[in-house]
Design goal:
By secondary structure, this protein is mainly α. The chain is built from eleven helices and no strands. It holds the Pfam family Sigma70_r2.
Length: 209
């Protein structure tokens, strides 16, 4: 596409451009390039921030703040690193600061993923009830999962949320948390075991009631 087309149809020009190349245009002041990055990452950033804050409004506000920081500090970006890693690092740091301010953090994991961790033998995971009862039970289970994740030590919780909820690669998580790949894997494995133990304890308490 020509430079003239880039001016006349900026969204079409930037639509398929890699993030890192878009940032080159953002550095020069292109609002259209920046808008494309916002479109690509807004929902993902809002989701990851929400996993930390458990507050939709704050997640929206902090997502906007993340993009403001990207734009204000656009000249600091270096193409030697992935843009996704850079912006997720900004978002996670904002989320952590919010959590520290509120002195509270909770997370959510899908019931299907929980079944992968625990298996379907636990009574509170079975789907042998009427649909209405299952819906209520799923809500209750989500609450239990939130509480269990919230109680994990921060170093393990961060790795778990980024991998199992946001589905980032081990490499991206390592760059965001500034730890080696081996440490990423060990923290995720440890977090899964700790979560599994907490949820099995809950299941046993349910059986005894």
């Amino acid at each position: 596409m020509s430079s003239l087309e880039a001016i006349l149809k900026p969204q079409a020009f930037f639509r398929d451009m890699p993030d890192e190349d878009l940032m080159d245009h953002v550095v020069t002041g292109s609002e259209a390039a920046f808008s494309c990055l916002v479109d690509r990452y807004k929902n993902r950033l809002q989701n990851v921030i929400y996993r930390y804050t458990r507050d939709f409004q704050r997640a929206e506000d902090l997502t906007q703040e993340a993009f403001v920081r990207v734009y204000l500090h656009r000249e600091r970006y270096r193409k030697t690193g992935k843009f996704s890693t850079w912006i997720f690092t900004i978002a996670v740091n904002l989320a952590k600061n919010e959590v520290r301010r509120k002195v509270r953090l909770r997370g959510v994991m899908s019931l299907d993923h929980l079944k992968e961790l625990l298996g379907t033998s636990e009574s509170f995971l079975k789907d042998d009830k009427p649909e209405t009862d299952r819906s209520i039970e799923r809500d209750q289970t989500s609450s239990v999962i939130s509480q269990a994740i919230a109680k994990l030590p921060e170093v393990y919780r961060d790795a778990l949320v980024l991998r199992d909820i946001q589905e980032l690669s081990y490499e991206e998580i390592g760059e965001i948390l500034d730890i080696p790949g081996g440490t990423v894997r060990s923290r995720i494995n440890r977090a899964r075991l700790m979560l599994k133990d907490k949820l099995k304890s809950f299941a046993r308490s349910e059986l005894s009631t």
